[in-house]
Amino acid sequence: xxxxxxxxxxxxxxxxxxAINPAWEEIDYNQLHVKVKIIASSFFFFAxxxxxxxxxxxxxxxxxxxxxxxxxxxxxxxxxxxxxxxxTVVGIWALWWDQELKKDVVFATTPTSFFAICTTxxxxxxxxxxxxxxxxxxRKMSILLNLHHWLSLVGYSLILWVGSTHYxxxxxxxxxxxxxxxxxxxxxxxxxxxxxxxxxxNQCVLVHSFHLRSVLEVFFWMETYxxxxxxxxxxxxxxxxxxxxxxxxxxxVMTPYWTYKKSAQLFNPIDWNxxxxxxxxxxxxxxxxxx
Length: 291
Description:
Number of strands: 0
Low-confidence stretches: 1-12, 278-291
Helix content: over 70%
Structural class: mainly alpha
Distance between the termini: 80 Å
Order of helices and strands: HHHHHHHHHHHH
């Protein structure tokens, strides 16, 4: 009877990592060296994805016809899409299956949440360093994109350091569900497929994913309201300021702006990341250069 009860308790406590490999849940994720290893592994994994994408894409005529900065953006789009798939899986698990983090929205942690947060830090370290180098070389930057990524890097690093707010951090990863569709949108544009059904369908899903982002952001505000007394009394001040600053910006500025831009792009399929493409005689949505 005791063994059965213990087995049931263990099954309930098992998270996403445990479902993949039970041994991964036995690791002590509070150890600094464990966190550093996961962050470093994440950084180099996404660097590998970037390089692999470059090598494979070099076989494509479209890719070879792009300018250097567009090639960097192409490879980053694939890296972001990869990260977006990871975030979607983890976010769906956290929202619908995980029960441990819900027990305490301020201090509850799980092996899956530690792994997801460390992986996210590794991604944003790679993303921000690549963006920084690219922006310095080309002397041009996207303010909103950089703001989003640097705030995310600082925010998730603070979450890991303080050991708080894993519930919101892990559930919040699902907001990246739009990223794979956004990446596919840009790649299809550069391949000259803006007039195809597949681009239109992908764009419709992309726009709807931003609508769902707004729904989820409202959900996070509702969760804040439900647990306000606990959050106000016990959440570390640094974590409170960081998390709610970013949630406010995402809810009121970033998601509405990106929803508008992607909705406009549905009816006017241009690459608004490189509106200066005409200067090099390269049309948006086509990699061939006119003679």
